[in-house]
Design goal:
The chain has 19 helices and ten strands. By secondary structure, it is an alpha/beta fold. The chain binds S-adenosylmethionine.
Length: about 375
C-alpha cells in the first residue's frame, strides 16, 4: 500500500465532508498569482546569471555542468533549476537541461534581448514601487515613486540623477518600442507628411524607425532636457542628424512648436491622467497644420474593462510609479480625449503583437 492509499483509508470522510475551496479555483492559477513575485525572481535570476545564454551556447547540460559554469553551490543550483524547470523556462529531462523551443526561437529572431531588457526594468525600477499599489489606489497617486531616490516630481526627472536606473530604463524603453514599432512603421502612411513631431520621444527609437522608412520626413523630438544628449547620440549613430532634431522641452509648461503634418505620442498617454492627456492633445491640435494627423501609439485595454491580461498587469506600474496617474487606458478613453481636443475621423488599428499595442489616429479638420 502506498502512502497516498493509507491516507485515503484513514481520512476518507475529512476529504469529502470538507471540500477544499481551492479545488474549485484552478490551483495553478492561484499559485501563479499568490507566488507571482517568486516566479518573476526565477526569471530574473536566470537572466542575470546567464542560464539561457549558457544553454543556448553549450546545452543540453547536466545540473552539475550548469552549476559549475554559473559558479553556484549545489543547493543554489538545485533551487534555480527546480524553479526554472517547474515554470517551463527550461526543459528538464532527468539530469539533463535544455533551452525551450520558444526561448530558442526568440533568440534566433534577435528578440530575446528585448525580454531580458524588460526583466531588468521590472527588477530594478518597477518591483519595489509596486509594493505601494494599495496605497497608490487609496491616495489616487503614485506613492511607489518614494522607492526611487531623489525628490524631483515624476520618475523621468529622477532617472537623470541615477545613471544606472536611467540606463536600465532607456534600454527597456527602446526594446519595448522595438517589439511593436515595425507595425507602426508599416501601418502609418507618412508618404504625404513632410514633418513629424515626436512628443516625449525618449532616445528617439521611434523617430529613427519612422525617418528611416520615410526618407523625405523631417522629425523633431521633444523630451525633458536630461534626455536630450542620449537621444542626440542615438540619432547621430543612426546617421540621421540632418533630418532629426532633438529639443529639450516640457510638454506641459512649454508651448509646442507649430506647422507639423503629424504629431506622435508613443508610450506617452499611458503616463498621465485623462485630463492631462486632453491637455496634451489640445496642444498637438494647435501644433498641426489643417488636415494633419495625431497618432497615439501604446498598449490599449479593451473597452469591456476585463483585459487583456498584460494591459491589467502593466497598469500597476503606471498607477504606482511614473506620474500622479496613468494606466493602460481603454481605446474609448483615448478617443474621448481626442474628441475633446477637437480631432475628427478617429481610426483604431489594433496590432498583432504579444503586447496589446495599438495605434489611434485622429485628424485636424481642413
Ligand atoms: C515611456 S517613455 C517613452 C519614450 C518613447 N516615446 C518610446 O516610445 O520609446 C516617456 C518619455 O516621456 C518623457 N517625458 C516625461 N515627461 C515629460 C515632459 N513633461 N515633457 C517632455 N517629455 C517628458 C520621458 O523623459 C520619457 O523619455
Amino acid at each position: 500500500m502506498t502512502a497516498d492509499q493509507v491516507n485515503e483509508t484513514q481520512f476518507p470522510e475529512t476529504e469529502s465532508a470538507l471540500p477544499d475551496p481551492l479545488r474549485s479555483w484552478s490551483a495553478d492559477r492561484l499559485s501563479m498569482i499568490l507566488f507571482g513575485h517568486a516566479a518573476f525572481q526565477y526569471l530574473n535570476a536566470a537572466c542575470e546569471l546567464g542560464l539561457f545564454e549558457l544553454l543556448a551556447e553549450k546545452g543540453p547540460l547536466t545540473g552539475t555542468e550548469i552549476r559549475t559554469a554559473l559558479d553556484l553551490e549545489e543547493r543554489a543550483g538545485d533551487v534555480l533549476l527546480l524553479g526554472c524547470a517547474a515554470l517551463g523556462l527550461i526543459h528538464r529531462d532527468g539530469p539533463v537541461c535544455r533551452l525551450t523551443d520558444e526561448i530558442g526561437a526568440l533568440m534566433e529572431r534577435g528578440e530575446w534581448t528585448h525580454i531580458v531588457n524588460t526583466v531588468a526594468f521590472e527588477q530594478h525600477i518597477v518591483y519595489e514601487g509596486q509594493a505601494d499599489f494599495t496605497e497608490s489606489l487609496r491616495r489616487d497617486t503614485n506613492v511607489g515613486l518614494r522607492r526611487i531616490p531623489g525628490d524631483e516630481p515624476g520618475l523621468y526627472r529622477r532617472l537623470a540623477r541615477n545613471p544606472h536606473l536611467e540606463e536600465v530604463f532607456y534600454r527597456y524603453m527602446r526594446s519595448w518600442s522595438q517589439l511593436a514599432n515595425a507595425h507602426l512603421v508599416r501601418r502609418l502612411d507618412l508618404s504625404h507628411a513632410r514633418t513629424l513631431l515626436d512628443c516625449g520621444g525618449g532616445d528617439a527609437v521611434n523617430a529613427i524607425a519612422l525617418a528611416e522608412a520615410n526618407p523625405h520626413l523631417r522629425v523633431t523630438v521633444l523630451d525633458i532636457p536630461a534626455a536630450v544628449p542620449m537621444a542626440e547620440e542615438s540619432v547621430r549613430r543612426a546617421g540621421l542628424s540632418d533630418r532629426i532634431t532633438v529639443r529639450g522641452h516640457d510638454l506641459f509648461t512649454d508651448p509646442f512648436p507649430t506647422g507639423f503634418d503629424c504629431v506622435l505620442f508613443a508610450h506617452q498617454l499611458v503616463i498621465w491622467t485623462p485630463e492631462e492627456n486632453t491637455e496634451l492633445l489640445r496642444k498637438a491640435h494647435t501644433a498641426l497644420e489643417p488636415g494633419g494627423r495625431v497618432v497615439v501609439f501604446n498598449s490599449m485595454s479593451d473597452d469591456t474593462g476585463d483585459g487583456p491580461l498584460i494591459a491589467a498587469l502593466d497598469s500597476v506600474y503606471f498607477a504606482c510609479l511614473p506620474a500622479e496617474g496613468g494606466m493602460i487606458y481603454p481605446w474609448s478613453r483615448h478617443e474621448a480625449s481626442l474628441g475633446a481636443a477637437g480631432f475628427v475621423d478617429l481610426r483604431r488599428i489594433p496590432l498583432p503583437t504579444w503586447t496589446p499595442h495599438g495605434i489611434l489616429i485622429g485628424s485636424k479638420a481642413l
